[in-house]
Write a structure and sequence with these properties.
The chain has 150 residues and is an alpha+beta fold. It contains four helices and eight strands. It folds into two domains: 45 residues, no CATH class; 85 residues, Alpha-Beta Plaits, CATH 3.30.70. 27% of the residues lie in helices and 39% in strands. The longest helix is centred in the middle third of the chain and has 14 residues.
């Protein structure tokens, strides 16, 4: 007998449908509608998932003279930085090499401001980059902040 889980998820105004085989557990965000399927039956189960979204950060990166002189080591240093972010409970979401005033932009999420500070300070103390980090508020939080103004 073949079982599967069909999931419908609405997140940020987008409706996503997925079928997972074999039956397994997935962590998804938002309000979910899950349908347990078998070859002969359909069972619909409705449940809500409480979501804790970690704060996101935008880090502007500049290579130091030391960092640019060892630029070929940069990919392995970046891999180590991703592991360091995970070690403090964070995650690197995106990395962009840029042209202009800054050499790169890093988008990340961390459970606390302190965890982000620990990560960026530990990366900076190696001497290969200097950083400027800003806390980022996604659109929904932006709307709530603006909506709360007197």
């Amino acid at each position: 007998m073949f079982w599967g889980l069909q999931i419908e998820n609405e997140l940020f105004g987008l409706r996503v449908k997925a079928t997972m085989y074999p039956l397994s557990f997935a962590i998804l965000t938002g309000n979910l509608k899950a349908t347990l399927t078998s070859p002969m039956q359909w069972h619909t189960v409705h449940f809500n998932v409480e979501v804790t979204v970690m704060p996101q950060f935008v880090t502007l990166v500049r290579y130091t003279q030391q960092g640019i002189s060892k630029i070929k080591e940069s990919p392995s240093r970046f891999d180590a930085a991703k592991k360091a972010a995970e070690a403090v409970g964070g995650k690197v979401l995106a990395w962009y090499l840029t042209m202009g005033r800054y050499d790169a932009v890093l988008i990340s999420e961390f459970p606390t401001d302190e965890a982000c500070a620990k990560f960026t300070l530990s990366a900076g103390q190696l001497g290969n980059i200097s950083t400027e980090t800003m806390k980022a508020f996604p659109e929904q939080e932006y709307r709530e902040i603006i909506g709360s103004l007197p």
